[in-house]
C-alpha cells in the first residue's frame, strides 16, 4: 500500500516532468523558429515582434479620438492665449513670433483640422487667413526680423494653405496661397535660380549669404509645382523647374552621386563635401522621390536622382552599432567618406521615405546607365546589383525605424533625445585594410557577409531589439550609468526632445506599408509619453531632459507639433486610411498634396516634355 502510493507519486512526478519538459521544448522551438536563424529566406515578411498586438478596433477608435482631443487641447490653448501670434509658450501662456508673426500655428494646423473634422476651429481660422497681410511684422523678435525666411515660410505657410485647399476646395485658401507664392518669389532672383535665404515681402529685397543650404534651396518644388497646377500660372511652375534644373545639371560624381549640404547661389554648383540626411540636407532628398510620386511618376530624372542618392546612402551612410546591432544613418565627409557616427532625430524621417518608395515603386537599378556613373557611384552600383533593391530599401526602413523607436523606448521619459553618438561595431575603414572602430561597420559590408554565408537569419540590423532602460539607481549614479551605456550602443549628445515628428512619421509609414499592428502599438507608447511628460494646462511643452521622468519642460510648442506629430498619430490610429499613399504625398511639413497627371494643355503651356516611357 505504502509502496504503491509512492509508486503512483513517482509516476505523477515523472509525468509532470515530462509535460514540463515538453512545454519547455515547445517554447524553445517556437522562439527558435520565430526569431532564430532559420528566418530570412528573402521574402519581405514582418519581423516577429516583442510587443505583439491584439488591441481591438474599438480601442483604436478611442485612441484616435484621444489624439484628436490632444490636438483640440493644444490648438485651444493657442487660440485662447496666442492667436494671431506665431506660437504659444505652453508654460507661461505668453506668445512667440518666430516665423513672420502671421500666425504660423494656425496656417500649419488647417489641414489637420480638416482631417480631424474640426469644422468649428477651421471656420474660426478662415477670417484670420483672409486678413493676413504677409508683410514682415514688427513683432518678430528673433533674427528673422524684416524678412520672411523662405524655406520655413514655404513648407509651413504655403504648404499648409495648399494642402488645406486640396482637402477642402475652399477658394480663399488658393487665393491666399497664390498671394503668398507671388510675394515670396523674388527669392528666386539669384543667378542660379536657387532661392535666397530670405525675402522682404514688402519690397521684394532678398537677404542671406551667397551660399545656400541644400534643404533650404531644394525643398519648395512640390509646393510651387502644385501651386502652378491649381492656379494655371506658368510663373510658379518656372520657379520649381529652375531648382530641379540645377539639381539635374549638378555633377556630383566625386560625391558618390549624392547632393552635399552647401551650394553656390551664383553658379548653382555644390561647394562643400559633407553628405548627410540630417539637418541642412534632409528634405531635399525627400523631395526627389516625392516630386516623382506627386506628378504620377512622369519626371524620370527625379526618380533617377532618388536612386543615385539612396544608393549612396545605403552603401556609405548606414552603419551598425556593436551592442544590439542597431542600424543607423550618419553623415560623412568626402573625399575620405569618414563618418561622424552622429545620429540625429531629424534623420528618422529617412526610413519612412524608404518604406514609401518601396511601397509605391518597383525600385530597380535599371533606371541608371552604368556608363554615366563616377567611380564611387559605380562601386555602390556593383554592390547593390546582388540584391533586390526594393527589398533592400524595406529592410533598411525596418532596421532604421526600429533604432529610431528604441531611442524613445530606452529613455525613462519614453521620449527620444535630439541627437546621439553611436558606438559603431568594429569594421573596415572605407579606404584601408585594418579593422578599425572609427571607420565602423558599414551596413552594406555586414549585408555582404550575410549574403555570402547563405543569407541565414534576419539581415543584419533588421528585426526586433529589446529596449535597454536604466534602473533608478543607475539613473542617479553616473558611474553605474556609463557602465550600462555600452549595452545600448550609443550615448546621448543632446538630452532635449523638441516635440519632433520624424520617428512617428516613419512609424506611421511602416504601419501603412506593412500593416503590422506592432508599429501602431509603438506609436501609442509614444503618444502616452507625450501625454504624461509634455502636457501643460494650455498645450504641450518641449522637454529639456529625456533622461528624467517627470521630465523638465521647456516653454515651447513648435507649430510642427500640430502640423505633423499629432497628424501622423491620428492617421495611424484612425480606422480608415484617410490619406491613401497612392493618391496623396506629404510635403516635408506633413501637408498632403494630391497626386496628379499633367494634361496635354498644361504640358504645352508650361513646356513639360512628354513622358518618355
Ligand atoms: C495658462 O492658461 C491655462 C488655461 O488655458 C490656465 O489653466 C493656466 O493656469 C495658465 N497658466 C499660467 C502660467 O498663467
Ligand atoms: C564630372 O566630374 C568628374 C570629375 O571632375 C569628371 O571626370 C566627369 O567627366 C564629369 N562628368 C560630366 C558628365 O561632366
UniProtKB/TrEMBL annotation:
Its cofactor is Ca(2+). Ca(2+) binds at residue 588. Disulfide bonds join 348-404. Pathway: Protein modification; protein glycosylation. Keywords: Calcium, Disulfide bond, Glycosidase, Hydrolase, Membrane, Metal-binding, Transmembrane, Transmembrane helix. InterPro entries: 6hp_glycosidase-like_sf (IPR012341), Glyco_hydro_47 (IPR001382), Glycosyl_Hydrolase_47 (IPR050749), Seven-hairpin_glycosidases (IPR036026). Its EC number is 3.2.1.-. The chain crosses the membrane at residues 18-35. GO terms for molecular function: calcium ion binding; mannosyl-oligosaccharide 1,2-alpha-mannosidase activity. GO terms for cellular component: endoplasmic reticulum; membrane. It catalyses: N(4)-(alpha-D-Man-(1->2)-alpha-D-Man-(1->2)-alpha-D-Man-(1->3)-[alpha-D-Man-(1->3)-[alpha-D-Man-(1->2)-alpha-D-Man-(1->6)]-alpha-D-Man-(1->6)]-beta-D-Man-(1->4)-beta-D-GlcNAc-(1->4)-beta-D-GlcNAc)-L-asparaginyl-[protein] (N-glucan mannose isomer 8A1,2,3B1,3) + 3 H2O = N(4)-(alpha-D-Man-(1->3)-[alpha-D-Man-(1->3)-[alpha-D-Man-(1->6)]-alpha-D-Man-(1->6)]-beta-D-Man-(1->4)-beta-D-GlcNAc-(1->4)-beta-D-GlcNAc)-L-asparaginyl-[protein] (N-glucan mannose isomer 5A1,2) + 3 beta-D-mannose; N(4)-(alpha-D-Man-(1->2)-alpha-D-Man-(1->2)-alpha-D-Man-(1->3)-[alpha-D-Man-(1->2)-alpha-D-Man-(1->3)-[alpha-D-Man-(1->2)-alpha-D-Man-(1->6)]-alpha-D-Man-(1->6)]-beta-D-Man-(1->4)-beta-D-GlcNAc-(1->4)-beta-D-GlcNAc)-L-asparaginyl-[protein] (N-glucan mannose isomer 9A1,2,3B1,2,3) + 4 H2O = N(4)-(alpha-D-Man-(1->3)-[alpha-D-Man-(1->3)-[alpha-D-Man-(1->6)]-alpha-D-Man-(1->6)]-beta-D-Man-(1->4)-beta-D-GlcNAc-(1->4)-beta-D-GlcNAc)-L-asparaginyl-[protein] (N-glucan mannose isomer 5A1,2) + 4 beta-D-mannose. The keyword Membrane applies. GO terms for biological process: carbohydrate metabolic process; ERAD pathway. Gene3D superfamilies: 1.50.10.10. It comes from the Eukaryota. It holds the Pfam family Glyco_hydro_47. Belongs to the glycosyl hydrolase 47 family. This is alpha-1,2-Mannosidase. It comes from Wolfiporia cocos (strain MD-104).
Amino acid at each position: 500500500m505504502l509502496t504503491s502510493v509512492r509508486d503512483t507519486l513517482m509516476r505523477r512526478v515523472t509525468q509532470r516532468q515530462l509535460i514540463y519538459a515538453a512545454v519547455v521544448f515547445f517554447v524553445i522551438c517556437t522562439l527558435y523558429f520565430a526569431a532564430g536563424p532559420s528566418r530570412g529566406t528573402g521574402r519581405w515578411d514582418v519581423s516577429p515582434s516583442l510587443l505583439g498586438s491584439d488591441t481591438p478596433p474599438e480601442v483604436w477608435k478611442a485612441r484616435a479620438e484621444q489624439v484628436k482631443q490632444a490636438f483640440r487641447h493644444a490648438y485651444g490653448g493657442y487660440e485662447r492665449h496666442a492667436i494671431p501670434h506665431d506660437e504659444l509658450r505652453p508654460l507661461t501662456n505668453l506668445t512667440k513670433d518666430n516665423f513672420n508673426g502671421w500666425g504660423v500655428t494656425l496656417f500649419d494646423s488647417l489641414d489637420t483640422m480638416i482631417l480631424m473634422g474640426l469644422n468649428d476651429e477651421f471656420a474660426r481660422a478662415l477670417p484670420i487667413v483672409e486678413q493676413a497681410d504677409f508683410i514682415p511684422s514688427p513683432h518678430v523678435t528673433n533674427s528673422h526680423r524684416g524678412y520672411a525666411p523662405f524655406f520655413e515660410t514655404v513648407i509651413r505657410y504655403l504648404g499648409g494653405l495648399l494642402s488645406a485647399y486640396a482637402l477642402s476646395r475652399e477658394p480663399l485658401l488658393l487665393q491666399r496661397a497664390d498671394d503668398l507664392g507671388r510675394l515670396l518669389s523674388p527669392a528666386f532672383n539669384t543667378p542660379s535660380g536657387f532661392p535666397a535665404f530670405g525675402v522682404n515681402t514688402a519690397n521684394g529685397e532678398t537677404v542671406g549669404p551667397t551660399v545656400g543650404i541644400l534643404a533650404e534651396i531644394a525643398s519648395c518644388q512640390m509646393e510651387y509645382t502644385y501651386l502652378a497646377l491649381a492656379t494655371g500660372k506658368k510663373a510658379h511652375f518656372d520657379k520649381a523647374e529652375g531648382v530641379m534644373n540645377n539639381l539635374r545639371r549638378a555633377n556630383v560624381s566625386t560625391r558618390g552621386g549624392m547632393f552635399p549640404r552647401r551650394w553656390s547661389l551664383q553658379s548653382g554648383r555644390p561647394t562643400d563635401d559633407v553628405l548627410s540626411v540630417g539637418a541642412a540636407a534632409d528634405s531635399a532628398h525627400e523631395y526627389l522621390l516625392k516630386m516623382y510620386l506627386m506628378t504620377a511618376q512622369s519626371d524620370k530624372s527625379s526618380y533617377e536622382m532618388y536612386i543615385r542618392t539612396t544608393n549612396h546612402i545605403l552603401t556609405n551612410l548606414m552603419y551598425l552599432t556593436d551592442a544590439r546591432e542597431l542600424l543607423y544613418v550618419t553623415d560623412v565627409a568626402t573625399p575620405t567618406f569618414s563618418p561622424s557616427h552622429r545620429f540625429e532625430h531629424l534623420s528618422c524621417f529617412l526610413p519612412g521615405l524608404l518604406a514609401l518608395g518601396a511601397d509605391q515603386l518597383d525600385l530597380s537599378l535599371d533606371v541608371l546607365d552604368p556608363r554615366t556613373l563616377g567611380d564611387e557611384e559605380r562601386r555602390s552600383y556593383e554592390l547593390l546589383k546582388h540584391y533586390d533593391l526594393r527589398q533592400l530599401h524595406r529592410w533598411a526602413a525596418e532596421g532604421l525605424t526600429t533604432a529610431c523607436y528604441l531611442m524613445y523606448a530606452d529613455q525613462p521619459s519614453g521620449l527620444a533625445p535630439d541627437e546621439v553618438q553611436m558606438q559603431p561595431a568594429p569594421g573596415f575603414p572605407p579606404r584601408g585594410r585594418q579593422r578599425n572602430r572609427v571607420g565602423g561597420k558599414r551596413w552594406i559590408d555586414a549585408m555582404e557577409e550575410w549574403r555570402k554565408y547563405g543569407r541565414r537569419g534576419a539581415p543584419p540590423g533588421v528585426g526586433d531589439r529589446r529596449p535597454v532602460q536604466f534602473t533608478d539607481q543607475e539613473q542617479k549614479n553616473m558611474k553605474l550609468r556609463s557602465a550600462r551605456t555600452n549595452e545600448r550602443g550609443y550615448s546621448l549628445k543632446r538630452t532635449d526632445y523638441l516635440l519632433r515628428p520624424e520617428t512617428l512619421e516613419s512609424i506611421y509609414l511602416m504601419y501603412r506599408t506593412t500593416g503590422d499592428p506592432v508599429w501602431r502599438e509603438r506609436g501609442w507608447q509614444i503618444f502616452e509619453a507625450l501625454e504624461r511628460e509634455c502636457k501643460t494646462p494650455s498645450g504641450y511643452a518641449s522637454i529639456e531632459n529625456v533622461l528624467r521622468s517627470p521630465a523638465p519642460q521647456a516653454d515651447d510648442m513648435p507649430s510642427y507639433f500640430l502640423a505633423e506629430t499629432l497628424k501622423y498619430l491620428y492617421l495611424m490610429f484612425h480606422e480608415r486610411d484617410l490619406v491613401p499613399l497612392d493618391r496623396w504625398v506629404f510635403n516635408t511639413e506633413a501637408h498632403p498634396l494630391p497626386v496628379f497627371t499633367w494634361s496635354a494643355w498644361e504640358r504645352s503651356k508650361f513646356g513639360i516634355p512628354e513622358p518618355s516611357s
